[in-house]
Amino acid sequence: MALWVPVLGALLMFIVAYLCLPGLFRQRRPQEPPLDKGAVPWLGHAMAFRKNMFEFLKRMQAKHGDVFTLQLGGRYFTFVMDPLSFGPILRDAQRKLDFVQYARELVLKVFGYQALPEDNRMIHSASAKHLMGDGLQELNKSMLHSLSLVMLGPNGRSPDTSCWHEDGLFHFCYNTLFKAGYLSLFGYTKDKEQDLLQAEDLFARFRKFDLLFPRFVYSLLGPQEWLEVGRLQSFFHKRLSVSHSLEKDGISKWISYMLQFLREQGVDAAMQSKFNFMMLWASQGNIGPTSFWALLFLLKHPEAMQAVREEATHVLGEARLEAKQSFVFEFSALQHTPVLDSVLEETLRLASAPTLLRVVHDDNSILKMASGREYLLRRGDIVALFPYLSVQMDPDIHPEPTVFKYNRFLNPNGSRKVDFYKAGTKIHHYTMPWGWGVSICPGRFLALSEMKLFVLLMVTHFDLELVDPNTPVPAVDPKRWGFGTTQPSHDVRFRYRLQPMK
Fold this sequence. Notes:
Blueprint: H1 4-25, E1 35-36, H2 46-51, H3 53-64, E2 67-72, E3 75-80, H4 86-91, E4 97-98, H5 100-111, H6 119-130, H7 133-152, E5 165-168, H8 169-186, H9 192-217, H10 223-239, H11 242-245, H12 253-264, H13 269-284, H14 287-300, H15 302-316, H16 338-351, E6 356-360, E7 365-368, E8 374-377, E9 382-385, H17 387-392, E10 421-422, E11 425-426, H18 444-461, E12 462-466, E13 493-498
Parallel strand pairs: 1-2, 3-9
Antiparallel strand pairs: 2-3, 4-6, 5-13, 6-9, 7-8, 10-11, 12-13
Helix pairs in contact: 6-12, 7-8, 7-18, 8-9, 8-14, 9-10, 10-13, 12-13, 14-15, 14-16, 14-18, 15-18
Membrane topology: Single-pass membrane protein
Keywords: Endoplasmic reticulum, Heme, Iron, Lipid biosynthesis, Lipid metabolism, Membrane, Metal-binding, Transmembrane, Transmembrane helix
Subcellular location: Endoplasmic reticulum membrane
């Protein structure tokens, strides 16, 4: 035993040296961005960054300006904070910046899915075919049916449905949209009541995984939490397995198209199940939280609620929400809701905070800023954009950026406003909730349709009110910065009831 002590000690010293030496010896070269490695070898600024990314990057921008390189957990991230300089990064015509590499590493860690080189092209092709035009209309019909089932139950209206119910607004929105989205995409059995119970169980476990997700990505879980994540992953792989799917009807053509592609590529059934888990997360992880913020802002701003209700009444006409009955509704009307579009765009501006990442392919790659200044980037470093801070909260682009203005994205004549400026220059990327370029969310049209349908139904078919009308809008949970739509630090209680038949 004594013989192994010095061997293990030497091995530990080697590991520490391997991790720390890159941070100790890296120095800023001529023409490189300002380098801030932090005080802790290898970790650098990782702990402060993970504690509150938004506040930390504000401090770094104030200290270093619009471009700086940070050491975060053994890797180097160059943050570009000037939105007028985003264009070359997002377009990247010479393919010197790679989005796919980092994404593959992440989905393997989080979902267990080993991505194929053709996956990105396949997902965009499937989305263009089934999440736009007639394909989107078909999914909208399925989503509306699922929302009716979730909101009314398998037997439709009962005396209880017109009574006041109290719930947390975040829980209600997330739960309702997750279950409806899951059933729309992954199908039903013949027992709708059992389907709803299974969807409820699935959401409860999804929420557990969701709460662990930020620290899981950063490898900050405790031993018991790692075991819990493993159990949850195994549960989802089993529940979303191909064999389980064969028992259902109505699986969306979008999901079926992608699974067919994987089968043709020789991907086994176990890996297809992991792909399903990834797509469940991608499709359902943000629409519930976004809808929470949208409804909360409407409840806190009566003039906005009134404007949306008037538009919704015009769009929906005499259509009624009834289980087991067709909802008579022209889905093309979803393209003619400028007020609701502005509300959702403003909600996403205030609540969506993804990080856009690109891995540098070549040494001495040039980053050209709008000012004309050029910086050199190193191979293996990661270029990072955080549009929430650099675009969506910029008072030059969006005056009073922390204030919800439901008509911010409307022109005086009611058309969509797309002209925004920074320092007198028109800016193309004035909000970026869906990412941009090669990493733009392929399911954004479906997500918007789902949220619009949900909000339209809620404001026209339900009476809604906050339990405490004076409750403030909760702060953002600081752990959620950088992971798509933010989530509140605590829930907000509200009451709702289905309006009586007229």
